[in-house]
Specification:
The chain contains 4 helices and 7 strands. It is an alpha/beta fold.
């Protein structure tokens, strides 16, 4: 997925890219094709960090407005904000959606949700809890208001 996404933005201009979640954070090094013998006593699997589309996209498409998503489990809201700001800075995100997920926080498999939206100026907005469709509309409205104000400037 990384190669396809980077290839697409390298060949054509996109006004907006919304990255809703990482397809995977790690992959298996030296993946075995086929069946492993059941006679083995032990199998060691080494995981390697996958390349990050959200980190690299703006290097290949600097004029694309990038909205990306950072989900975390089991941390404080302050730590979520700090981690999201760090990741947003690394990837030059224009807007970051910060999301605490888990059993008591919602997230995956729910109809309603809540996110923190962080912009490049450090402004934090809380959106939700709303139906996920409404959350998406709110984020798109925010994007439109930001880009509209840039055009007027």
């Amino acid at each position: 997925m990384y190669d396809v996404a980077i290839n697409l933005v390298s060949k054509r201009h996109y006004d907006l890219a919304i990255l809703t979640a990482a397809p995977l954070d790690f992959y298996v090094r030296d993946r075995v094709s086929g069946k492993l013998s059941s006679d083995l006593d032990k199998v060691v699997i080494e995981l390697i960090q996958a390349p990050k589309i959200a980190r690299d996209l703006k290097r290949f498409s600097p004029n694309t407005f990038l909205i990306a998503y950072k989900a975390e489990v089991g941390i404080t809201e302050e730590e979520l904000i700090a981690r999201t700001l760090r990741r947003a800075s690394e990837g030059d995100w224009d807007l970051a959606l910060a999301h605490l997920v888990g059993e008591s926080r919602g997230g995956f498999g729910t109809e309603k949700d809540e996110v923190l939206v962080l912009d490049k100026n450090g402004v934090i907005r809380r959106i939700g809890p709303l139906h996920k469709r409404e959350l998406a509309r709110e984020v798109l409205s925010l994007y439109l208001s930001i880009t509209k104000s840039r055009v007027k400037s």
